[in-house]
Amino acid sequence: MDYKELQKKLSMKKEQVWKNIEFKVIDDYAKGYKTFIDSSKTERKAVKYSIKELEKNNFKPLDYYEKLGKLENGDKVYFVNRDKSLFAIKINGKIKDGINLVGAHLDAPRIDLKPEPIFEDTEIAMAKTHYYGGIKKYQWLNIPLELHGVIIKKDGTPIEVSIGDKEDDPIFVISDLLPHLDRNTKPIREAIDAEKLNVLLGTISITYDEEIKDGTKLNILNILNEKYGIIEEDFISAELEIVPAFNARDVGFDRSLIAAYGHDDRICSYTGLTALIESSPDGKSPALLLIDKEEIGSDSNTGAKNHFWIPVLKKLLKLQNEDVVIAIEDTLQNSTLLSADVAAALDPNYKDAHDPLNAPKLGYGIVIAKYTGVRGKGGTNDANAEVVGKLRKVLNDNNVSWQTGELGRTDLGGGGTIAKFFAEKNLDVIDAGVALLGMHAPYEIASKADLYETYRAYKVFMEKY
């Protein structure tokens, strides 16, 4: 017996993406992604960027087709939910036959300003914060930070704020204690008090009249009033996010990696967006869902629990002259969602956090995760074998590099994605996305090869599944 041939026939073979695709092809795609990630430091900015790209490629808002009163093959539709989530679809045949949907989230771990943020202590003006999502608090100290968001003034006028992303802008910092004075022996996760994540705003008093209290705070409020026309009470109706003032950069002598803030999960959002735009479906209608609030459980009316996209489908079904009550159930049952979310790559510095045999590696393509969840698969969608098998076949038939993965060791890791919220609506669902090093850090690491193969995987899924 030829055991070499037997091993070749029976064993699973994994190859690096770089072995089969030229660096320039991958790097050219990565350049577009870096432009996106640098322009999309918040979910609102990511939605704006996505709308521009969709409209450049002849997608039109849902109300355009509602006014037109009909829907035809080849029509491209998008719908925006409260400026923080988005649904887009290319019509190809009957929607009730199902759609091939890629769903990703646009929010990322960050630090938000509290509703009444500005205060003064020892003649330094600072802003109180509340962190958003799972972070290691110490990673946010003494790094350059930007401020982005929206303020709704007392008269209802919205004011967009972006400070720190331009070359001549000031940045912001949360100060740390110097090592000479830091004798804290607490575990590192407990060493930083969340209430001390205060952002430095300024040190100059508006006046040195001793009768004026908190002159430095008043000076900051005056600067903001002159620039934006806002008053202190307006902060209560604001969404202001503190994010790292880092742009995407190539990593390593070979430039094979990208460091950026917000890979989780804007890297899957971008690959899904470009896959939809460039797809040429020959089966079900391809669609994209970009949503908010995944990092805090997918709650609220812009998160995955809202299902705002289902009424959109109902309106599209009506435009196709379907009995909406029946057709929407057929649509959901016949649809498949790739829950497009990142995975934890095997880090050689922290191997003991993983089961190496079931941990994804950088450069080996998109990660297919049958389940995520916390210890004992709690809180997960555990994809049916048939769904895994069909996806595997589609990827193999189109020479897309893929690998499987778990989110850490069984009793150590686990996590949540948007998958389970779609499975409960009767869609077939499986997690699939890019492997990262340093997930949830202010600067995360991804492989350009995995970025490109994830785009290819989503495109093939949209076209062929």
From TrEMBL:
Is the Metal-binding keyword given for this protein?
yes
Q: What are the protein's UniProt keywords?
A: Aminopeptidase, Hydrolase, Metal-binding, Metalloprotease, Protease, Zinc
| UniProt-listed Gene3D superfamilies | Aminopeptidase i, Domain 2, Zn peptidases
Q: List each coiled-coil range.
A: none
UniProt cross-references to NCBIfam families, sorted A to Z: PRK02256.1
Q: Does the keyword Transmembrane apply?
A: no
Name any cofactors this protein relies on. Answer: Zn(2+)
GO molecular function annotations of the record:
aminopeptidase activity; metallopeptidase activity; zinc ion binding
**Name of this protein:** M18 family aminopeptidase
TM spans (from-to): none
Biological processes annotated in GO: proteolysis
Say which family it is in. Belongs to the peptidase M18 family.
Per the UniProt record, one Pfam family is: Peptidase_M18
What's a GO cellular component annotated to this UniProt protein? cytoplasm
What is the superkingdom listed in this entry's lineage?
Bacteria
Name the gene.
Answer: apeA
Q: What is its EC number?
A: 3.4.11.-
Q: Which organism is it from?
A: Tepiditoga spiralis
